[in-house]
């Protein structure tokens, strides 16, 4: 299964004369590995423009998600995501790596 979405957002603040424009794409690919295991890859890329500061930045993330169905009501998953932001001003740049495990019980 492949899903994708395109997004564009433009907001204006009248009091501060500020205008933000964000345009990006998200793609997710999911595939069953077996009858109880599903793997997913997800990625996002967005360009941000801020006026009147004339600041541009790039935001991205990529993730891997493994879901294991233990029973009809219990699922466990392990996930990893790398995210980052790079701005031409350089003060809001970041990179992060997050890994987590999760258990879910549905009733």
Describe the structure.
The chain has 107 residues and is mainly β. The protein has one domain (2-105). It is 0% helix and 78% strand. It contains no helices and six strands. It has strands at 2-13, 18-32, 37-51, 55-69, 74-87, 94-105. A six-stranded antiparallel sheet has the order 1-2-3-4-5-6, with no helix packed on it. It starts with a strand and ends with a strand.
Task: Record keyword descriptors for this entry.
107 residues, mainly beta, six-stranded antiparallel β-sheet
Compute the CA-based radius of gyration. Answer: 18 Å
Instruction: Report strand order across the widest sheet.
Output: 1-2-3-4-5-6
Number of strands: 6
Low-confidence stretches: none
- Beta-strand share of residues: over 45%
- In helices, the fraction of residues equals under 10%
Let me know the average pLDDT.
87
Distance between the termini: 27 Å
* Total domain units: 1
SSE arrangement, N to C = EEEEEE
Number of helices: 0
